[in-house]
Design brief:
heterodimer; A: alpha+beta; Alpha-Beta Plaits; four-stranded antiparallel β-sheet; 6 helices; rod-shaped; B: alpha+beta; 3 helices; globular
């Protein structure tokens, strides 16, 4: 090994054409590590390992031969990309509710205005509206019996039997 | 022959299998489960390119795993649904 001593607390080790970066999972979630590794696969050969439950080891080997300084620069760029991915992840998480609301609205708009069939279904499915004054109640239903009772009472007062009134009702 | 170990917490089994099917033209790849690793023994058809093929295979597995994670395992769900449909 060219350099067994890590730079800072087991972070970066350069070894025969490859550089190994040890990452704390508490600082860098797996999605962030995958995102950064994905960016580097066109420049490097990337291999992940989990030496213990708290760390992920990322091994970068350049496609072209690099000296030690270039490998350290590569590790530095990878660290920057990790921060970039972590920030993007944080922003996405913070804006998740906004993104979902906008997407839902866009999807609803893409469906277009409701056609007649939708309107008919909506009308039948709609709940009955409030009618505290009884405006929607038909006149016959609301006053019919009272009017009939009043007519019978008036007929009795005029000396006519109720049977005649009921016959009239029956005719009508 | 080259050997690469894929940690099962970091690499998707499905991604390894799919990568193996893609690389079948270039190498014969044998997978051996040695928890917590899957050990891939790679024998390239061109011996002088064996190291490069093995490294490309590892990259391919990593990229597929990352894509699966990014899509929330949607690929896995689709394939499992197709499997269950074909069984019935």
């Amino acid at each position: 090994m060219a350099d067994q001593q890590p730079d800072t607390a087991e972070q970066v080790v350069v070894d025969s054409g490859r550089v190994t970066v040890m990452l704390d999972r508490a600082l860098y979630p797996l999605d962030v590590i995958y995102g950064a590794s994905y960016v580097f696969v066109d420049r490097c050969y990337v291999l992940l390992d989990a030496p213990d439950a708290e760390h992920v080891q990322v091994e970068l080997r350049a496609r072209d031969a690099l000296d030690e300084e270039a490998l350290r620069n590569l590790a530095g760029e990878f660290g920057n990309e990790l921060l970039n991915q972590a920030w993007r992840s944080q922003v996405t998480q913070n804006n998740r509710s906004v993104i979902e609301a906008v997407t839902a609205k866009a999807m609803a708009g893409a469906l277009g205005p409701p056609d007649l069939d939708d309107a008919a279904v909506e009308e039948f499915e709609a709940d009955a509206f409030d009618d505290p004054l009884g405006i929607a109640v038909p006149w016959e239903e609301k006053y019919g019996k009272q009017a009939q009772g009043a007519a019978e009472q008036a007929a009795e007062e005029q000396g006519q039997g109720p049977e005649q009134g009921s016959d009239e009702d029956g005719k009508s | 022959m080259r050997t690469i170990r894929f940690h099962h917490e970091l690499y998707s089994t499905r991604a390894i299998e799919r990568s193996r099917s893609v690389f079948v033209e270039h190498a014969s790849i044998e997978l051996i489960q040695e928890l917590p690793y899957y050990r891939a023994e790679i024998t390239a058809q061109q011996v002088d390119a064996e190291e490069e093929v093995a490294a490309e295979f590892a990259n391919y597995v990593l990229a597929l795993t990352a894509e699966e994670r990014r899509s929330g395992g949607a690929d896995l769900r689709v394939e499992s649904t197709e499997d269950s449909g074909s069984e019935s």
